[in-house]
Design a protein that fits this description.
Strand order of the largest sheet: 1-2
Distance between the termini: 22 Å
Number of strands: 2
Length: 115
C-alpha cells in the first residue's frame, strides 16, 4: 500500500462523509473504521488511530464531535465489514428501522477480511 501525506485526510472526509446536523455525531471509533475502509479501497496505508485523530484536530475537526455521516463506497465496505451477519439473512423490521441512524464503534484491522 502507498503512503500518502496527511492531506489525504481531507480527501477522505470529502469522499466518505457528508455534513449532518443531527444530534448524533459519529463516534471516533466509527470514523476511524470508515477511514480504514477508505484507505483499503484507495490502497493507502492508514495512519495509526491516535495519529489520525491528531491530524483531524490540526485540520479543525474534533474527532469526539464529528457532525458528519458516512456515505459512498467506503461506507458500504465499512458497514459490510462491521456487520457481516446482518447481511447474510433477511433483516427484521426492527433492524431496518434503525439503519438510517447507524452509529457504532466496531471497526476492523485494515487488510483483514472476515469469511
Amino acid at each position: 500500500m502507498a503512503h500518502m501525506p496527511t492531506s489525504h485526510i481531507s480527501v477522505f472526509l470529502q469522499e466518505a462523509t457528508v455534513p449532518d446536523s443531527s444530534e448524533n455525531p459519529l463516534s471516533p471509533d466509527c470514523l476511524y473504521g470508515l477511514y480504514t475502509s477508505w484507505c483499503l479501497l484507495h490502497r493507502v496505508t492508514p495512519l495509526e488511530d491516535l495519529h489520525f485523530r491528531d491530524v483531524l484536530r490540526k485540520q479543525g475537526v474534533d474527532p469526539g464531535n464529528v457532525r458528519r455521516r458516512i456515505t459512498g463506497p467506503a461506507a458500504a465496505d465499512y458497514i459490510l465489514a462491521s456487520y457481516p451477519a446482518s447481511f447474510s439473512q433477511p433483516a427484521t423490521a426492527s433492524q431496518t428501522a434503525g439503519a438510517s441512524g447507524l452509529r457504532h464503534t466496531h471497526h476492523r484491522t485494515p487488510g483483514t477480511f472476515e469469511a
